[in-house]
Amino acid sequence: MRTISTILIMSIAITALSSPQDGKKSLPEQKDNFKYLTEQFADAKILRYQVPGFENLSLKQKKLVYYLSQAALCGRDITYDQNFKSNLLIRYTLEAIYRDYSGERNTEDFLQFVTYLKRVWFCNGIHHHYSTDKFMPGFSQDYLEILIRNTPDGSLPISNGQDKRQFVKEINQLIFNPNVAPKRVSLDPATDLVVSSASNFYDGLTQREAEEFYDNMKKEAKQNRQDTMISFGLNSKLVKENGKIAEKIYKVGGLYSQAIEQIVFWLEKALDVAETPQQRDAVKKLIAYYRSGSLAAWDEYNIAWVKDLNSLVDFVNGFIEVYGDPLAMKGTWESLVNFKDVEATKRTEILSSNAQYFEDNSPVAPEYKKKKVKGVTAKVITAAQLGGECHPTTPIGINLPNANWIRKEYGSKSVTIDNITNAYDQAAKGNGFMEEFAFSKEEIDRAGEYGHLAGNLTTDLHECLGHGSGQLREGVGSDALKNYHSTIEESRADLFALYYIKDPELIKLGLVPNEEVAKAEYDGFIRNGLMTQLVRINPGKTIEESHMRDRALIARWVYEKGKDRNVIEKITRDGKTYFKINDYDALRMEFGALLKIIQQITSEGDYEAAKEIVEAYAVQIDPELHQEVLARYKKLNIAPYTGFINPEYTLVMKGKTITDVQINYPDDFATQMLFYSKNFSFLPVR
Ligand code: ZN
Description:
Elements: E1 2-4, E2 37-41, E3 44-48, H1 59-74, H2 76-83, H3 87-100, H4 108-123, H5 141-149, H6 164-176, H7 193-196, E4 202-203, H8 207-223, E5 236-241, E6 244-249, H9 257-272, H10 277-292, H11 295-307, E7 313-321, E8 332-340, H12 342-353, H13 355-360, E9 376-388, E10 395-400, H14 404-410, E11 412-417, H15 418-428, H16 433-437, H17 441-466, H18 485-501, H19 504-508, H20 516-530, H21 546-561, E12 568-573, E13 576-581, H22 584-604, H23 607-617, H24 623-634, E14 641-645, E15 648-654, E16 657-664, H25 669-679
Parallel strand pairs: 3-14, 4-5, 9-11
Antiparallel strand pairs: 1-10, 2-3, 5-6, 7-8, 8-9, 10-11, 12-13, 15-16
């Protein structure tokens, strides 16, 4: 599970950060004049991020980062293909035009073409990474035809027996026809979720058939006394061929074999430079899983991975998060290579060593609490490479593994990615956002002073404690909430964080200096959940993305429940809407009350209750407020979404010996994307 940056919460004009002497949090040392923001297009901006501390790693650790980084890039095309079956075909076509088109480039149309291609790179496909809607180009079908006609046939992925006219027609349909693959992930309960989603996890079957297939599989496993705890369906595409339903497994020799073989190649290199026997064991098991495709092997790997606590360098690599599947079963491929920020990790170590306190004292009903919280390990990390679904857009916090039973029996690892949040904060300095949407100077100053700490601490609490807290009632499956699962799960983790960030215990533990940190977080959360996150949504649309639904659900629920006591006040000033918190303690109690409800829904697997609360609070938008917020935001000229350029690692050789690994920070998004496409594309285009 992951935390995605709220960006808009994460504060903006950071004037004062807690000093290193606080023993809490300091920003990594900055290289002078490091350029974070490189460009902006459509609703996206591109940042670079630094990898402070890389130079101080040992040669062996640097090699490990290098090998794992290569493995992180080898699965890139898998993510594209999982997102939509024609994504690779479209990307190859657009890249061929970008490279080899012989016509005039200095035109508005060509600029629009480049913007469209950049959006495809940004989203790993033709659907918006966040709303999952298909986005439309700013040029015409006729222009696309001109582009294709003036690009050499040999560069284009024209299939055998297809002439250029047919090829043009095919690509035009895919890109421009609003009825072809309109949405990557449909969560509309009135539709067949499988049929109405363009993501490429099912082919030729209905939601009911897919659900029955896995229900039967689970039943059979139970009857045959096989492993019933595995994450059924996680690493496969489910297809119906000649009337028969079958799973195509992602593995060496199976679906995506060409890319997976490359991943395995680099993982084998990593074996030789693993830091600890536990890490070596984990990498070995991951390789075994990629070879067999067995989900029991996947669980074995995860257990080994959770046990590897002493390595400085760590990584994620696999079919992991299920947000891309409307039935929340299929994992999208992702990778993250990182190393521990030892100093900042002291913060999360305090949290995790007190995990039982937080579990015991939460407002959740006793039967849904873990009697004994197992090994929640949390660290602050420095990202060294992002790949697959984690790139170019990336989470700022991750808690894995996702399998509930492993979390319960073996614990989980939770991370906050500090160099990424730092890049966000640095790039957002002085962009005018807070001045526009915060009610008072007091709020702005508070965000400036405590926003970075509040944001990171909330991520720690969310990932390290929130997702790991609570337990399901015996017999409740983790997929019981189906299309509402992700929203409810994210709400649960957010509420846990919101409830505890204002706990006096945090001050006692030395994690926060005073109550202002919690207030900064509450200000930002309420402002975002009730108002500013709407800048990410086009007029007339509803809220669909799970993290956004989660934030709307929480903010609106507490606003409504506290209305009679004026806990949160809606104020109009000069025609502009603001939300001001009048009673922070009462608000904390509301967060606690909602946490209790959400935990009950989760623990009982109560689909109807999940549906009711999500549909009531998290989906619809007040069109008037929406319009106002969009207009105010537009004036600021800030792109609401952020993607990152990865650093580049180069081996320094002396003869056949690696003597060092150098890190560079490239600053051109398109160049990096083309480099990846050239060097890390292993899958067939069709
Ligand atoms: Zn989360």
